[in-house]
Sequence to fold (382 residues):
Amino acid sequence: MKALEDKLRREATVLSTDILKVGNFLNQTLDVSFIMEMGKEIARLYTHERVTKIVTIEASGIAIATAAAIHMGVPVVFAKKSRVSTQTGNLYHASVKSFTHGNTYEAIIPMDMLSEKDRVLIIDDFLAHGAALTGLLSIIQQSGATLVGCAIAIEKGFQGGGDKLRAEGVRIDSLARIRSMDPETGIEFYA
Amino acid sequence: MKALEDKLRREATVLSTDILKVGNFLNQTLDVSFIMEMGKEIARLYTHERVTKIVTIEASGIAIATAAAIHMGVPVVFAKKSRVSTQTGNLYHASVKSFTHGNTYEAIIPMDMLSEKDRVLIIDDFLAHGAALTGLLSIIQQSGATLVGCAIAIEKGFQGGGDKLRAEGVRIDSLARIRSMDPETGIEFYA
Fold:
């Protein structure tokens, strides 16, 4: 998505060769009209896939998942990262090692929110090592739902998670796919 | 908002006289078209207030804040509950005691995301004791921004947080305001 690549060049900050800061429009301040454009593009990519549910993970996946859901007319289910007192009943869950936070958490979705009748599109803001996505894929598999694909805003291709999952046969669509980045020279995208 | 009261009567689960479960449409599964209707109602309530930014807190405030922002044409800023490695620079922060989780966390917004030029509408899914809202109000005060008001999906009026803040002069609009609730007899709203 050319508009996202342009926006990243213009507005993102490359903190290191690993860390990209997009808090000013994608994951803390939300440029909602731009996020709606990303949601529209995701809806276009999955037009004929009869998606019944979008699955994401709190917190920064929620806005883009909501935007896509508005265009697709389906509900969003987001995985929570900890069990809270209002969660009862049986849960699908998967352990996720966060490279950003350096910890491991449980991604949790109550069993009554996903079923084998669902055709699921996973949406997230970032794909790097693929840890969160692998956790969500495990949850979808536990539920018996059909995975249609994964739509990602920004893939840090050089961290390998996307290619590993593609090699396993998972459909992954990244709106912007970064080949490399550097605080000095900026961001280079895959063609 | 009559439609929200009806939906709560129909789809929410009263777990106890204190705890209401709305994970099936508002804060884990997201009924996005209904959330858009709530966002539209919030936008209507604040039509003439020249709001420049919506502030919420992760995770369950993000969807409704995004919905209102789409109708109002302004960005959303959400407070994070922990410091992550991509956050640098100076931060506004406030301690929040969570009654739901029984812990205390820091609500954090980077200083460059809010300024004294902003006219802020706070949006959240629940108002109970007012702990999260009080934290966000502190952050807005630290920033020098003007608080326009707080729009809440569901206020548990009997827990007192809303009235305490109203008594301090804060404008609070709750789309549904619960007087009492009980697993046996259901939900009673303020007239």
Observations:
- The first helix of chain A runs from residue 2 to 11.
- Chain A touches chain B through 44 residues (CB under 8 Å).
- Chain A has a mean pLDDT of 94.
